[in-house]
Write a structure and sequence with these properties.
Order of helices and strands: EEEEEEEEEEEEEEEEEEEEEEEEEEE
Helix content: under 10%
Length: 369
């Protein structure tokens, strides 16, 4: 086994330049071939047209690059939805969400939400963790008459951040449709975001029968956790509707601190020292026990899954074991909170254990939002 690595610097337009190569623990000269690390990405000189957002050098979040000459942007995830615009080859657009099988992506398009087919783009980053968005209703091919009385329905709510960060503003784009034939005037759309009960509201100026529109709500919350909130159309009950019971759209989201490290199913052999992040080892796995290094502490988290652990759950009142864990505690499925030697909060899951080998998943948080 060996470890290879390449360090890249991202340019202002999303391209990258190789700064350093490593072969196991040795740094290579840039003109050395070194290990086969695949093709080196080259910077693009193409500026995105005004209809798209230009990513920053850090490419915060998940982005896509169009790899066809012309890509249709639609109002929903499928070729049967209306086309609302186009993207050109090499345009880079931020991803806001996806359908459950990731075949269609919701993107930031002209200040609202559009949909593109995944097969025609290159994903810059990872789709893991992006919001799964419920698709708007499929357009009907037959000319079905609309009910005479107005009926306001929220089709989608898409957050501009897959995971809002405490203390940083995030924006929700809400798509509202009048499923009735009679036009309606101005009405309010609102939501109270958690944690902290942050109330936000906006307005749709009016909708004709069968018409859809988008509005946005922006909020900043503090604290962490996983929450479900209802986004409400016609908050004040000003519109008489045929169905008053379908005005709420429930959205589930996670608020958490950003990560320094995130590993999945990492194999740890007997007598291995492990540094989760920062340059100092946190513990040694001797094949039976986890022995902590000075400065690290752990605590078993009961009644919670690894996926649902967030920064606020990593309480020093629970993570106060400075010695380690015995062999009867190191079992598949065990979730462990940890403070690294550098004082960072993290969480570990024992994925599997076979003889003297364990497999773990872990993530380490940045203590600053």
């Amino acid at each position: 086994l060996s470890r290879t690595g390449v360090v890249y610097e991202l340019g202002p337009r999303g391209g990258s330049t190789v700064l350093a190569r490593f072969d196991d623990i040795s740094r290579l000269q840039l003109d050395q071939a070194g290990p086969d690390v695949g093709p080196t990405p080259t910077p693009t000189a193409t500026l995105a047209p005004p209809t798209s957002s230009v990513p920053t050098a850090t490419l915060e979040g998940t982005w896509i690059r169009v790899n066809v000459n012309t890509l249709n942007v639609r109002v929903g995830p499928g070729p049967n939805y209306d086309k609302i615009g186009e993207l050109s080859r090499d345009e880079q657009i931020r991803v806001l969400g996806a359908v459950a099988d990731y075949t269609w992506l919701a993107i930031d398009f002209q200040g609202g939400v559009g949909w593109v087919a995944t097969e025609f783009v290159e994903v810059l980053g990872t789709l893991v963790g992006v919001n799964i968005v419920q698709a708007p209703p499929t357009p009907t091919l037959a000319a079905t008459p609309l009910p005479a009385t107005p009926d306001l329905i929220i089709d989608t709510v898409v957050l501009d951040q897959a995971q809002p960060i405490p203390g940083r503003a995030f924006t929700a784009t809400i798509s509202v449709r009048n499923a009735g034939a009679t036009a309606v005037g101005r009405f309010a759309v609102a939501a109270t975001w958690e944690p902290g009960g942050v109330f936000t509201s906006g307005f749709v100026e009016g909708l004709a029968g069968g018409q859809s529109a988008q509005t946005t709500l922006t909020a900043t919350v503090t604290g962490t956790g996983i929450f479900q909130v209802g986004v409400v159309a016609d908050l004040n009950g000003e519109i008489t509707e045929s169905n008053e019971g379908n005005n709420v759209y429930n959205i589930t989201y996670r608020v958490d601190y950003p990560l320094f490290a995130n590993q999945t199913n990492f194999q740890v052999g007997v007598d291995t020292f492990l540094d989760l992040y920062g340059g100092s080892n946190e513990f040694k796995w001797d094949g039976y026990n986890i022995d902590l290094e000075p400065g690290a502490s752990v605590g078993i988290l009961s009644g919670v899954s690894y996926e649902n652990v967030h920064y606020g759950l990593l309480d020093p009142g629970v993570i106060n074991n400075t010695v380690g864990l015995t062999t009867d505690q190191v079992l598949a499925g065990t979730v462990i909170g940890i403070y690294t030697v550098e004082g960072k909060r993290g969480v570990i899951r024992i994925d599997n254990r076979v003889d003297t080998t364990i497999w773990i998943s872990y993530r380490v948080y940045n203590n600053t939002p």
